[in-house]
TrEMBL record:
<protein>
    <submittedName>
        <fullName>NAD(P)H-binding protein</fullName>
    </submittedName>
</protein>
<dbReference type="InterPro" id="IPR051207">
    <property type="entry name" value="ComplexI_NDUFA9_subunit"/>
</dbReference>
<dbReference type="InterPro" id="IPR016040">
    <property type="entry name" value="NAD(P)-bd_dom"/>
</dbReference>
<dbReference type="InterPro" id="IPR036291">
    <property type="entry name" value="NAD(P)-bd_dom_sf"/>
</dbReference>
<feature type="domain" description="NAD(P)-binding">
    <location>
        <begin position="8"/>
        <end position="132"/>
    </location>
</feature>
<dbReference type="Pfam" id="PF13460">
    <property type="entry name" value="NAD_binding_10"/>
</dbReference>
């Protein structure tokens, strides 16, 4: 039995990874800002981090935020892992972090490089966006009378549960370096995905596609965030929507 630390272990992905590892018989510690006994803010670091990694064989690094600070958090985690003699650091990243010039993607790519240069044994998995993210995007758009969608952009959403399964597998194996990217089962246009969300929620909205300028959207239109050659996910967006809105949604 190995001792595994999951950072961001109370989040959407980290919680599922933790469950799977515990089901597999491993001792799992959860590190999050408000999760006792390992309540640590990775961006700030501190002595609590050393206690969290002491005696740990593997760290699964799921903690991340688009609000900034991922690179500093990685510095603190890597330093603590070195002091503790951690053998394996597993990191979840995003397909396209090296191709799409978005601030959050650039930070994730920088963390990849930090891990690769850390001197620790490491594994990095990149996946496409989770179904949940698209739902949040559409729910935000749905507050307006018209859905405004970026023209020419597609997505390849994947079930977070499938990513959790893969991360748990990687955590109990040895360091594997950069493993094969993991994408959802289908590449779908944004209007197509939006129509699926509208049907599932019973909302009625016209959808308008508009061209969006800039390098980031040029990269998205080129499919820099997609991995059509690796459609390993099984769960579809419609299946996710059916489960999420099983209790019914009020049309608005």
């Amino acid at each position: 039995m190995t001792t595994i630390l999951v950072t961001g272990g109370t989040g959407t992905l980290g919680r599922l990874v933790t469950e799977r590892l515990r089901t597999g018989g491993h001792e799992v510690r959860v590190l999050a800002r408000h999760a006792q006994p390992y309540a640590v803010d990775l961006i700030r670091g501190g002595s609590g981090l050393d206690a969290a990694v002491a005696g740990v064989d593997t760290v699964v690094h799921c903690a991340s935020t688009p609000r900034g600070g991922d690179e500093q958090a990685a510095v603190h985690l890597i330093e603590a892992a070195r002091r503790a003699g951690v053998a394996h650091l597993v990191y979840i990243s995003i397909v396209g972090v090296d191709a799409v010039p978005i601030g959050y993607y650039k930070a994730k790519h920088a963390v990849e490089r930090q891990i690769q240069e850390s001197g620790l044994g490491w594994t990095i998995l990149r996946t496409t966006q989770f179904h949940d993210l698209l739902v949040r995007v559409f729910e935000g758009m749905g507050r307006l009378p018209v859905l405004i969608l970026p023209a020419g952009v597609s997505d390849q959403p994947i079930a977070v549960s499938e990513v959790a399964d893969r991360l748990a597998e990687l955590a109990v194996d040895g360091p594997a370096g950069r493993v094969e990217d993991m994408g959802g089962p289908e590449v779908r246009t944004f209007p197509d995905l939006a129509r699926a969300w509208l049907r599932a929620t019973g909302r009625r909205r016209p959808a308008l596609t508009v061209p969006v300028p800039g390098k980031a959207f040029r990269a998205l239109r080129a499919g820099g965030h997609l991995t059509p050659g690796n459609p390993v996910g099984k769960g579809t967006f419609e299946e996710h929507l059916a489960a999420r809105y099983a209790g019914g949604a009020t049309a608005r």
